Amino acid sequence: MIFSSYRTSAATIALGVLGTSAAFGASPVAVDLGGLDPQASAQTISVTVALKLNDPNGAEAMIRRLATPGDPLYQKFLTPDQVEARFGPTGATVDSVTANLRLHGLTVTRTSSTTLSVTGTPAALEKTFQTSLHQFQMPATATTPGYSYRAATSRPTPPAEIAPSVQAVLGLSTAPAFHTNYRLAPESLLATKSANPSAGGNPLGFLTVKDFAALYNVDPLYAKGVTGNGHTLAIVTLAGFTPSDVFGYWSSLGLKVNSNRLSVVDIDGGPGAPSDASGSAETTLDVEQSGGIAPGAKIIVYQAPNTNQGFLDAFAAAIQSNKPDSISTSWGEWEFFNNLANSPVTDPFSGETVSALQATHELLLEAALQGQSFFAAAGDCGAYDVFDEVPANDTTPLTVDYPGSDTAITSAGGTTLPGTQSFGLPSGKTLNITVSTERVWGWDYLEPLCKALNQDPITCGIYPVGGGGGVSVFFSEPFYQFLTAGVQASQSGQVFADESTTPPTTIFALPGHFRGRNVPDVSFNADPDTGYIIPYTSDKTGFSVLNGGGGTSFVAPQLNGVTALLNQNAGHRLGLLNPLLYGAQLIGSFSRSSVLNTISTGDNWFYTARNGYAPAAGLGTLNVSAFAALTK
Residues 324-335: pLDDT tens digits? Predict the structure, then answer.
């Protein structure tokens, strides 16, 4: 049994921005300190100006053709130059925007087909984009240190002459924008004993990538010599990590890896030194999982500051280079709004969020055209992704996690493995909870434990913890979900409001009955109580092997590693996996194919599993070797 002698409490890590850290209502309100101080005003700032694709509708249409068997363009992916020539902003557009910004005293450098790095003094940027920059101070909490940042007090507006060509202006705000989707089970919810998931496997909560391979039928590919050799996977992340952790993990499992397989690319200066507060455990597990599942693959880690600008620029670098065949990220935010807890700015549309979503989407279209497979965690707050991200006086409507809600990404959901979990109670007695079959990860199955502890679900920490799932109210239903039974429209009556006022102040009423993109697409085990170990070096407590690691943060890199195997097995890139996954589901409905294992029990606190697709665990879990045979 690997690492069986380790049992490290989640309490040993100061989790900071990690998924387990944000106790509901714990977020303080940032203080507006006014305009930038003289020292900050004297320094230059670099922002990213994202340009619009010249033909986004044409790009969407071609992605569908690339994914349609029998079409002359099926899987005939494009190079970055071909994408730019056919769909990118024209040379005249780039020249016009560049010249206009330079007339405003700014320095302009093109960084990708659709992004420009624009540098100037704060005063020049304020004048150019018709806004004001202020300093903000976020007070410390019991789990996170205080920090300061700058942000625009109104939506940046490009000069009128170039505004039709500009999708977004990102970088005026340096507020943390994203959270991880990684959770450690708190001690009170961590089983003291559990059954093995498979013969010879490690106990639940102590799983490794080898257990994953046994659970989801990866081993037959290894037996054929398929390890991801000849392919490159990438991690997009917003925190640094310690490389010795990941190499030590692979070595402890006897995996044969090339010592030069890993490279790191710092974006926008990088995220700084690894730390618990920044979310370094997230990056660590992303690399450990993806690289452990595909030990023969090369790995590039694109690491950036935790801002809208950093995230977009990291995506742009990975896509423009075209080096990685598959890419995953486990960071996210609730769709539509971010930073409400980080900013006293009350109008959600005055920030960067909506324009950032669209700019990122157009980058992801480029990735799909190039045949790059993209994966993102679906979130860990069940059907209420907003729950951990806003103050306690705000309502928590049904919401989904971005970027997993993007139609050009495969959204990674979560399940709970079957077995009996034993919990020690303060009375000295033991409570056993048995999960009879793999189910949707929703911690409502732990309600008997909370009842035994005399706690309600929120105080106990189980609500609304579970695999993210639901209906986007930003992205329309994509073509690959058109014929899928179980796909739903958005629910009516979902309102995001501030209840501290009388009457409550409606900030945004989410559209009801919207035929939106459903998430997740596919799932694997993500429940911390049936989860994994994470060898990790904390900046507070040093190296240890954490157990009870979970969250859909595990599933996104697992799919990334699996895709490196699939690509090698097929002999080429597979591109956006969603059409293949939903196609496999349609085939299975006629032939009883074993490619997808239906998850028909459990819920994520709102959406319930069914025998088929549901916005809880999606299509189910993947039988990897069977899927490999289908896609070869």
Answer: 999 999 999 998
